[in-house]
Amino acid sequence: MTKLSGLQRDVLALYRRALRMVSMKPPPSQPKFRLFVRYSFKTQGGAVSPRNISAIEHLLRRGKRQIEMYEDPNVRDCWVSSEMTEWAGRNPSRRDTADRFVTYDVSGVKLTTGTQEVIG
To answer: What is the CA radius of gyration of the chain?
Structure first.
């Protein structure tokens, strides 16, 4: 495995911090926070060239401020757009596909969770 640059380590540290923040939220709202974090990192990170250091640093600063805001214990829920839920349907997380299935409605609320049956 190649060594990560300082900027890459900062991005991964911010992502881990965001996922730790999700685990501190009430269980009913955790899927929405997790989707929000995944969507934000994937769409905003993919829109910036890896060579554009100033834009990456700007997104890191903005992300840190946003996570600090969401880490507040008084923030118990977040809004998830229909675009995010559609994206989640096209890009399931490992957590969703490992041994369970998850269905979202338009508001981003998890409707069904269960174990997939293996037929064979």
So the answer is: 16
